[in-house]
Amino acid sequence: MSYSNSNSYSNSYSNSNSYSNSILWYSFLFKAFIISGIITLLFGYYTIEQTSVNAYRTSFIILDIGMAIIILHIFLHNKIKHALMYSMPLIITICTLSFMLYLIHTNTDILSTVNIPPSYNTFFYMYLICLLIQLFILYNVISTEEFQKYGKANMNSMSYIFYISIFNIIWFYFIYIILKYNITQGFTTFT
């Protein structure tokens, strides 16, 4: 009889241990996508022309996939109302990353030359700074035990990500206008 009690204890312990291992695996996966996205962003910043364009393209794809997995984790562990509330800033960030990926893809010929408009660089670097701040906040959110176990995020941190996403939408709009009309003069007046 005592053998069966110890056996049930070991079974419950192994089930609990496998659950914590899956949490560690998810946590590692989230962090790996964010860190690799940041590394490729920095690689794109320090390279030139076509290499830089390809690095930004790769980084945005990696970050899109990583944030999609984080959103999936949120939806698997929460009711729909709470899941939407926790994941809406990330959905907006995925949209801006996807649109930026589209802009980079459709304007590769402009961006891979040396004649990049100076105003493009200004707004693109503002976009990247805001994106890096968002990723830093998101990394801190997914590092908490509450997020790893229950998929719950700190609402203050998620609201910061949301507000920074609004700035990223503004920077994206300016970048879109610059690339659409190929304004190479920057902020000069036309006479």
The major β-sheet equals: none
* Residues in β-strands, percent: under 5%
In terms of structural class, how would the helical and strand content be classed? Answer: mainly alpha
Number of domains: 1
Q: Could you name the ranges where pLDDT drops below 50 across 5 or more consecutive residues? A: 1-16
> What's the β-strand tally?
0
So what's the overall shape? elongated
Beginning-to-end CA distance, first to last residue = 95 Å
Structure characterization notes:
The protein has 191 residues and is mainly alpha-helical. It has one domain (27-181). Helices cover 85% and strands 0% of the residues. The chain is built from 7 helices and no strands. The chain has helices spanning 2-45, 49-77, 80-106, 108-111, 118-142, 145-150, 155-181. Helix 2 (49-77) runs antiparallel to helix 3 (80-106). The longest helix is centred in the first third of the chain and has 44 residues, at 2-45. The model is unreliable at 1-16 (pLDDT under 50).
Provide the descriptors you would attach to this structure in a database record:
191 residues; mainly alpha; 85% helix; elongated; disordered N terminus
Structure in a nutshell:
This protein has 191 residues and is mainly α. It contains seven helices and no strands. Helices cover 85% and strands 0% of the residues.
List the helices and strands and how they pair.
Blueprint (H helix, E strand, L loop, with lengths): L1 H44 L3 H29 L2 H27 L1 H4 L6 H25 L2 H6 L4 H27 L10
